[in-house]
Amino acid sequence: MSILHKIKKMSFLKKPKYHIAILCVLIIILMIFVYKPYKENLSPVVNKKTIVPKTSSSNNKDSNMIFYGLKNLNNEIIDNGSSLNGYIHNNELNVIVSLQHLMNEEREYGLIVLENYKQTEFKIINNEKIDKFLFTMKANSEKDIKVMVPISKDAIDIAFLIIKKPSYELREKDLTKAGILEEVLSLRFPLKKDTEKKQINNAVPNEVLKTQINESLFLSKKEKVLQFIEADKEQSNLFLSVGNDQKYPIQYAIIALNNWEQVPSIDNKEEVFYSSVVPNKRNIYNFKIPKVTKDTNFQFIAFPYPYQVSSKNYKSQQAIGSFRILILNND
Question: Which of 190, 218, 252 is the last residue of a domain?
């Protein structure tokens, strides 16, 4: 039963003095509903014991699920967060990205690869190097994508990101659609058995706030109010909020994607910036929307525990997306 349905079934007490208190409770519930939009059922293949069901339009037509994982060239599932060092030959990583789209709709997906959180080229077909791969899946279908990634000598982490509906432009305030587009399917792995420690220089926030709502990643027009925006003009000033609702500090690596190409973000300097957030606080960074030649999708993505990816730490395998916004060209 949804929160809104629960609200409709609540009965008000007859005594007037309780009305204000109950109204406040309802407002808080509605605020939580606003900041927790609809999410799809995502299921990363966590280990070799996980059985990924085969797709059939009759058996899976109502499943509304997405299964995804990484396999070796023998079609064996690779444990999430485990080292990929054994799959590198002649400085090239050879693996299979597996995706099962168990939904009653045709959908476009995009695949990008990050080495040390920087977008890197990879090969799929005809040995042609690309930095993003867009493909369409029919309803209730599955796809295996053989990916070849050149690996540099300094590589520590690698991440495969699957983007949902990369060409879709959200132009209306629709939190259900925004919640679907916000989610990024991530497959993160260390490239060595013992993850090396890397020196991290955290970006200094413009402000640190303590508020009741500490979303991990949020773009807003105001510092203190997390206000959903679906589109804004190029060169507009926004605020990026990086939050922590846990009881312990969290370290993030954060990137920005403009039309699914990595771009410098905070202070227009680095392609990757780092932020360490103390419990129950939000780091606020000033941000100017980049110039574009046409209306373009834009999104921030945060990676908890950079360079510490582990099969024992589920959060270190995640990627957290901000709400996707549409940059509007001024011409």
Answer: 190
Mean pLDDT for 2-16 is 33
**Residue 256 lies inside a defined structural domain of this protein:** yes
Per the CB < 8 A criterion, the answer to whether 124 and 160 are in contact is: no
> Is 299 exposed, middle or buried, given 0-12, 13-18 or 19+ CB atoms closer than 10 A?
buried
Q: 196 in a domain, yes or no?
A: no
Nearest-angstrom CA–CA distance, 259 and 327 = 10
Residue 319 lies in a domain: yes
Model confidence at 38: pLDDT above 50: no
Q: Which domain holds residue 286?
A: 207-328
Average pLDDT over every residue of 126-141: 94
Across the chain, mean pLDDT equals 83
Angstrom CA distances, 111 to 56, 60, 175, 232, 272, stand at 24, 24, 24, 25, 19
In angstroms, the CA 130 to CA 165 distance is 19
